């Protein structure tokens, strides 16, 4: 099928309205830059999507069915592999959520290794990108709460969770913007921007329209995710964090529509394999064709399923090797309780285990000593306050997954 033969998914194109921009009088810029950044710009006037009529070509329908089936396979595989009552499923779901959060942040050029992220989650990190990514983890957790009820308050809670780890952004956390935002161009003004968000007075009505769209049950879930995400990015309702919140929103929809129940598939990892395609698809959506962004998310869901299953297998293999190292240990030993927690938190200290296992300090100390003596854990330097222990195999699996994405 040639480019000319590929049928679009036609939607009303985004409107625009003209305005004139003067850089702030106290902006520290040169005279020539002030002249260059003064002039007309066009801000977005997104169309309503609440009652959007979507005519899908047959090939797109087939692709969406395939992608939805792939996500279902991942969810069923996780449930069957670990069992709904198996204590390992919770940590495994958490690490997939963290993988998704890390990938989503990486799209924004916020890269952090598995070790630094684990240290930050433990309260032993040094801040920086790791703290920002932890905020994204919290936003993803809030997204799963949003999946129960699509409303403005839950959406704002997602944003608050995201920005709460960034001190310079806390004043904006959990609030819709009351100022203009734009993508690309100069930080001085929107004159040369690739996309200028709607004027602030349009934001809340547009968000309400989007939430009405999310309550619909007459659309394929992945198509609904793709259009909701593209519309959210077009609205750009926040001063910062729009991309990460918009991708977290996808998981709220997937969970709400029943495609996923057990795990958080790393959909952003699929988008990260070709970020140019992803960003171009957002622009094409605004021009009146939803097909590229729908295909982007369909591909990302299939990628998330395939690599998510591989990641589960690789992490489970690490657990199996660790169980071998503990062979012969009595069944009621506390070390067995620590083992599945290492999937979720591959760097631990005594305080973490006391808090999360509810065991006494001496019991936790003996468990760590056993795990270290058997070669499951290794003590490392790096904690700011306490001694910390690391499961190198699990961290290596997570770093290898991230490296695989960067190579693409």
Q: How many strand segments? A: 7
Average of per-residue pLDDT values: 87
Radius of gyration: 23 Å
Helix content: 55-70%
Please give the order of strands in the largest beta sheet. Answer: 5-7-6
Largest sheet: 3 strands, antiparallel
Order of helices and strands: EHEHHHHHEEHHHHHHHHEHHEEH
Give the structural class: mainly alpha
Molecular shape: globular
Low-confidence stretches: none
User: Distance between the terminal alpha carbons, to the nearest Å?
Assistant: 26 Å
How many H/I helices? 17
Q: What is the beta-strand fraction? A: 5-15%
Explain what the structure shows.
With 408 residues, the chain is mainly α. Helices cover 57% and strands 6% of the residues. It has 17 helices and seven strands. The chain has helices at 31-36, 58-82, 89-107, 114-121, 129-146, 152-163, 200-214, 221-235, 242-256, 267-272, 275-287, 291-325, 335-338, 341-344, 350-357, 361-373, 392-407, and strands at residues 15-21, 39-45, 182-183, 195-196, 347-348, 378-380, 388-390. A three-stranded antiparallel sheet has the order 5-7-6. A two-stranded antiparallel ribbon has the order 1-2. Strand 6 and strand 7 (388-390) form a beta hairpin. The mean pLDDT is 87.
Features:
3-stranded antiparallel beta sheet, two-stranded antiparallel sheet, 57% helix, 7 strands, single chain
Care to give the gist of this entry?
By secondary structure, the chain is mainly alpha-helical.
